[in-house]
Amino acid sequence: MLKNFFSRIKQWLQTKNETTTQRRWYKKPINFIIYALLIFLVLLLFININFLWLFGKSPRISEIMHPQQSIASEVYSADGKMIGRFFKENRTPAEYSELPPMLVKTLIATEDQHFYSHFGVDVKGLFSSFRDWFRGNYRGASTISQQLIKNMYKSRTAYSRGLFGHIPYVRVVIMKLKEWIGAVKIEMFYSKEDILTMYFNTVDFGNNTFGIKTAARVYFGVTPAELKPQQVAMLVGMLKAPTTYNPLRNPVRCKKRRNVVLKIMQREKIITARAFDSLSVLPLGLHYKDEDLSYGQAPYFRMAVANAIDDWCKDNKLDLYTSGLKIYTTLDTRMQQYAEEAVKEQMTLLQREFNRQWGTENPWRDASYREIPGFLRSNALESEHYKILRKKTGNQDSALALMEKPVPMTLYHLRKGAVDTLLSPMDSIAYCLRLLRTGFVALEPANRYVRAWVGDIDFRFFKYDHVSQSQRQPGSTFKLFDYAAALASGIGPCDMRTDQYIEWKYVENGQNKVWRPHNVNGVFYNIPVSLRSAFTNSINSIAVTLAREVGIEKVIEYAYRLGIRTKLDIVPSVSLGSGEVTLLDLVNSYASVVADGMYEAPVLVTRIEDKNGKVLWRYKPARTQAIDYETAFLLQELLKAGLKERGSTVQNLWKYNIFKDGTEYGGKTGTSSNHSDCWFVGVSPKLVGGSWVGGEKRSIHFRPGTKIGEGGHAALPIFGMFMEKVMKDKSLKEYRQKFPEPKQKISKNYNCVTSIPDSLLRSADTVNETDTIIEKLP
Q: What is the distance between the alpha carbons of residues 489 and 534, in angstroms, rounded to a whole number?
């Protein structure tokens, strides 16, 4: 009986085991799935931590929480207008409130229909994508969050690939998994609205245009809120492939893609069927503006700003082109516009006269006005185009032969701007060398705020800045420093000096030399002239006499005190402007005189903020008393006398309607040797401005014996036209001022006039030399 019992138990267990075995068939696939998931999770972990550097870099949590974007820095004028940007990627961030609902709905309908329901990875979309793959209809399944990771953290660039990233098919899988991981992370820390905002701020719209705010402005000249349905469709459609659907290069493809998006908008009831029918036949309607670094107002000024804050950016570990700084400057857009207009008006007239003077002859001449042989060839050999051809061909003759072959090119035309033409590179060099160049700057003497800055005739073609970079001979405008040193030494404006022949012996580099300066007409009248009249009529002999009395070292010292920053050689000819200065330094020196002898460096920037509006730097005045008040006042009187003394070159200012409400002016002209450089610095109580006109090379001259090649006729009109526009503008009435009465008792007489012969008037506005060669010809 017991045996029978155990037999039954054994039979039951066998039956139980067989049943259990039959029921466990499903455990193997479940275990496989569990193990596969574990392996997949471990793989994700290894990818995330870049295990053994096999998978490349992935964004960390800290990077997700504090994303870094390349944001353009913006430059603002003193009157609150944005005048330009510095950028590597042209991007201006938008807030979510700036994104119109139509734009958001269209993006989600086109790129990620389940955006509001997934956690970064659209599982449903993945299965649909796999199904379509099997049917031969390949399409992506990237969510907006995944695309954001790709755009913001460059998940597909070479630096983040790791060792496995070099295996073709493995690389694709790793990149996708990285985007999944990053998308989940970003969904953990940001709302859907934040993700949409970041996405719209990072996407590439082609042509170095990043972010919806920049794209709307560049392609259509509007804000995101002002985008029309067809414009929304075009921009959203471009996101699939910015190059393929580039509206500039592939307008037909772009339009087809736009219409696909319009159809999606109709399907999702964002627009009506009727609207689709009418919008789909419309042209793209672009209002494209290429926003390179030259785009905007005052490009030369903005480049000067970049140079001015470069060291500060480096010290503070900031990148001007990516940090999204807000730079507030001293520039006044009204005055900048007037300066640009004045430069264009005068240079158009001047270029026409210059071309008429030389006709078919070449204007590059030596000191004796003989054409310089081989000048064009030597300039061609220095050109970048020749160097490229030389490297390509391997020999000089072949490269020069190609330089003579006409090719399509764009040239600058003073009236028309950019002009497409067919010309040989050699002829284009000759054409450009014949173009006169210029610079103009205006600043307030009281605070040295730069209000207008024009560095040349057109920044798109000529990047070299003739305000702050170019160093040229200032001619008679340098005489301000001769008289400053003399007045500071106790000499008065009404003291007399004789216009007479001078020999100045000196030692240079161990050699004995003699300098014999002349007046322009080569005649000395041997009559006494007051310093006031000598200054206004720019008599060389008397300026040299004063410089010799006080010592050339003293003259140079006062030039440095007032604002000259270029190195000046200690030679007698410096007294007549043989040294080299920048226009900015020269104008600032005159501003020091108007500011009662107070020196301060020109101010371009008043404050800098970060992208969130936090002030990082603020301008603090740093002023020093360069010369005493009485000397400064007497120099002001000498400058003002130019409009009162008969025969003064400054008398040309009376041609311009600039004397609103009794506004007073003064100034000084200058012309360097052989009419290479023409200068004028004009002063008023609230504004000082200066202009330079000349050829690109010093050996490019105006014809001798013509007034058009003198400072009073070439450079002065720019200041006159500029001030005429400023005075006419009622919003700038604050600049209508008279010079104040003296603030203290002046010990020297300054109201005197010398009657001098007509032949002596205008005797010396130009540097002249005999034994000493001042001009440096190339």
A: 18
Q: Which two tokens stand for residue 515?
A: 């300098």
Rg of the chain (C-alpha set) = 37
Cβ atoms 354, 436 nearer than 8 A: yes
| Helix or strand holding residue 752 (H, E) | none
Pair (425, 512) in one structural domain? no
CATH of the domain at 744: 3.40.710.10
Angle 536-710-460 (CA atoms, 0-180°, nearest 5)? 125
Residue 265 shares a structural domain with residue 139:
yes
Residue with tokens 């001449």: 365
Q: Is pLDDT of 289 > 60?
A: yes
Tokens of 656: 């311009």
Residue 334 lies in a domain: no
The H-or-E segment that residue 135 falls in is none
Q: Are residues 105 and 249 in the same domain?
A: yes
Q: Residue 43 is encoded by which pair of tokens?
A: 């793989």
Q: Distance between CA 647 and CA 470 in Å, rounded?
A: 31
Rounded CA separation 597/258 (Å) = 65
Q: Residue 215: CB partners within 8 Å, gap ≥ 6?
A: 205, 209, 235
Whether 429 and 383 have beta carbons less than 8 Å apart is answered as yes
Residue 125 predicted with pLDDT over 80: no
Judge whether 11 lies within some domain.
Answer: no
pTM over 0.90: no
Do residues 500 and 526 lie in contact, with contact meaning Cβ atoms separated by under 8 Å? yes
51 vs 6, 46, 144, 294, 553, CA distance in Å?
59, 5, 27, 46, 70
- Look up the domain containing 140 and give its range: 88-292
One-letter amino acid for residue 439 of the chain: G
Eight-state DSSP code of residue 370: P
- Please provide the average confidence, as pLDDT, over all residues in the chain: 88
Question: Which residue reads 């590439």 in tokens?
Answer: 204
| Of the candidates 571, 563, 572, the residue with the CA atom closest to the CA atom of residue 598 | 563
Tens digits of residue pLDDT in 611-637? 999 999 999 999 999 999 999 999 999
Q: pLDDT digits over 330-382, tens only?
A: 999 999 999 999 999 999 999 999 999 999 999 999 888 899 999 999 999 99
The CATH number of residue 270's host domain is 1.10.3810.10
Cβ burial, residue 20 (10 Å; 0-12/13-18/19+): exposed
Length of the chain: 778
